[in-house]
Write a structure and sequence with these properties.
- 2 copies of one chain form a homodimer.
- Chain A has 379 residues and is an alpha+beta fold.
- Chain A has 3 domains: 86 residues, Rossmann fold, CATH 3.40.50; 60 residues, ATP-grasp fold, A domain (Dna Ligase, domain 1); 193 residues, D-amino Acid Aminotransferase, Chain A, domain 1.
- Helices cover 29% and strands 27% of the residues of chain A.
- In chain A, strands 9, 10, 11, 12, 13, 14, 15, 16 and 17 form a 9-stranded antiparallel sheet that branches. In chain A, strands 3-2-1-4 form a 4-stranded parallel sheet, sandwiched between helices.
- In chain A, helix 1 links the parallel strand 1 and strand 2.
- Chain A is globular and about 55 Å long.
- Chain A starts with a strand and ends in a 5-residue tail after the last helix.
- The model of chain A has no long low-confidence stretch (mean pLDDT 96).
- At the A-B interface, helix 1, helix 10 and strand 16 of A face helix 1, helix 10 and strand 16 of B.
């Protein structure tokens, strides 16, 4: 056995940070990227430029890889089955990944497992949305295309049947869900290996602004231990039942009446786990690599009392580098993670991590740095 | 100002780990490497294959770089001056770097600064070595070629003039030094930026086996605070007086009579600082990048009570990867850093870091992992 080749499909920031985490392991990392300018393509040695939607491109890329894993969930399921038929391990495999690709499949499976979810069903047109609303507490209702949505895209909150026309225009099945009365969003991150070892990171609180993750606090403050345990066990059970290999993020609603409901699943390193790069003994990226290689997993426990991750979004100023001077001088413990992306307003171009014993201080430092880099804070 | 390009000369493991540390900063990293198989060339996107001893190769490489820095100290001084004349910042600069290249120049400068060193002088032949011995406590005497030695190479310990012929054969000036009666070796690591900001890492103990660094303990156990402070101040003063930019490692002898004497200087990230990758708030590699870019430096303080680094040397078994299974399963907190090098007996191919509150435990875990990877421990 020699050092294996991990093939990563997709050149985004998750691939970039997975490469960073793989370097110390001495493994070979091969990237399939849309363009040479993609986030990960800028920092990886062995890059193939090509379209993951093309099966022959994928097949050619996979030759010489010991395992294939993903920066995103958009590779067609039938392509993944073809790679498996070629004898290439695909992790997570297509039968697991479909639950992160198709929200209809995901909801049906979680229902079958008895995992608590928001009330939901597939709807066929605006009149059917009105019927779904009437079956429960009425409007508002959340509508989601079952495939293709992320960061608030492909998601609508509608107050009437008249507002519900838009989601049906794409011709993709539409899932209706109750608008959950939640007090906050949580995420349970777990990593599972092919032979079934699994580790759970502490449950985190994820704060959204305009449908995009703004801040993550690890661990989630003031979370009852019983609820934390329930969320961790739920994530571990989903990972096992769905045969997930690699990182699984379970996004959760904490309801006003003290329950946790599953919002979304992601089967790859996830924004809600970025805190682990500086805040955990083993980062989500390092553990994802270990999992897909079927190596023993690393300790997921936190290294600090509190760790806060704040996403850096693009603002009006294209030059974020010059903001480093102030941010680094102000906070010598600040951890900046930039993705090599062009700045566009609202685009996730990086994140910062801070950690320490005092949550207010740790939060303030993360928010200040993210705001200063974006240009919304100027002192 | 946009994200800068750091040009790294040399494709060894220090370049590899500097790239790893630079990824989160979003900078561009360009590598000049001897071969595509070199440690860093395996993991960097933008690689030029060429010979750093050829000025035109260096010049072509430097075009488009915002700053040049180094994996090693072997680039000829006159080449560095030529790059500076071309307007490319070279960090550390040639006037600083010569002190890490030429042990004769280094000793003369440290003498002028009043920095305590072992008794020493340049010697011309074996008879002169005998004279040098007679001027002090006699044999043994340490002989070093002033250029080109590392890890015990280019260093001889001789017990008589008759044994002293070998070092003179290369035609390079030879430095004679007293064999210091030391109780242990220490290292003071500091990083300095062009505008003069500097940070000091805690002084570490470095344990050698057969002239090669085996283990580093951070901080050095049972080191009197006054001596630690003296060593840190000495390193900061040397960095300032020699106008070092980037990382400076000052290797020290702690003598039986309670003094610290300078053994060697290295002006690049250094083996004695590898512990900082997992044990300090900011690693030596991250701070080296920040320094050469004249960014504010990161906090060098330790994150754990004790951190131990153990070098992984090549043994009789070429396949280290299969040893990961046992090492990772035994110690989920273990940090492995492999360099992508072919295993050859005695060659440094990686290191491991461990940290925690109990030094005996931390030492045992590091030694076990390094020994198991090498193949000298089999259970």
């Amino acid at each position: 056995m020699t050092f294996p080749v991990v093939g990563m499909v997709g050149g985004g920031q998750l691939a970039r940070m997975t490469h960073e985490a793989g370097i110390p392991l001495g493994i070979r990392f091969k990237l399939l990227s849309d363009t040479p300018q993609d986030s990960a393509a800028q920092v990886v040695s062995d890059v193939v430029i090509g379209d993951y939607r093309d099966l022959e491109t994928l097949r050619a890329f996979a030759r010489g890889c010991d395992v294939i894993t993903f920066d995103h969930e958009h590779v067609p399921t039938e392509h993944l089955r073809a790679l498996e038929a070629d004898g290439i391990p695909v992790r997570p495999g297509p039968e697991a990944l479909v639950h992160a690709q198709d929200k209809g499949v995901m909801r049906a499976r979680l229902d079958a497992l008895g995992v608590p979810c928001p009330r939901h069903r597939i709807v066929s047109d605006p009149a059917d949305v009105a019927a779904f609303a009437a079956e429960g507490d009425g409007f508002p209702v959340v509508l989601k295309t079952v495939r293709g949505g992320y960061d608030g895209k492909g998601v609508w909150v509608v107050d009437s049947a008249a507002e519900a026309a838009e989601p049906f225009r794409a011709g993709v099945p539409v899932l209706a869900e109750e608008k959950v009365d939640f007090v906050r969003e949580l995420a349970a991150n777990v990593v599972r290996s092919p032979h079934g070892q699994a580790v759970a990171y502490p449950v985190v609180e994820s704060r959204q602004v305009n449908g995009v993750c703004d801040t993550v606090i690890a661990p989630a403050p003031d979370l009852a231990e019983s609820l934390a345990l329930q969320a961790e066990e739920m994530a571990l059970r989903i990972a096992k039942e769905l045969d997930v290999v690699g990182h699984l993020a379970v996004e959760l609603f904490q309801t006003r009446d003290g329950r946790v409901l599953v919002n979304e699943l992601a089967m790859r390193p996830h924004n809600s786990g970025h805190w682990s790069m500086d805040g955990a003994i083993t980062s989500q990226f390092a553990n994802h690599v270990r999992a897909v290689l079927d190596l023993p997993l690393g300790d997921p426990r936190p290294r600090a009392r509190w760790t806060v991750m704040a996403n850096v979004l693009g603002g009006d100023y294209p030059d974020m580098y010059s903001a480093y001077l102030h941010c680094m001088a102000r906070d010598p413990q600040l951890k900046i993670h930039m993705y090599g992306k062009d700045v566009k307003p609202g685009r996730k171009v990086g994140h910062v991590n801070t950690y320490g014993d005092d949550l207010d201080d740790v939060l303030e430092r993360a928010r200040h740095a993210a705001g200063y880099l974006r240009g919304t804070i100027t002192e």
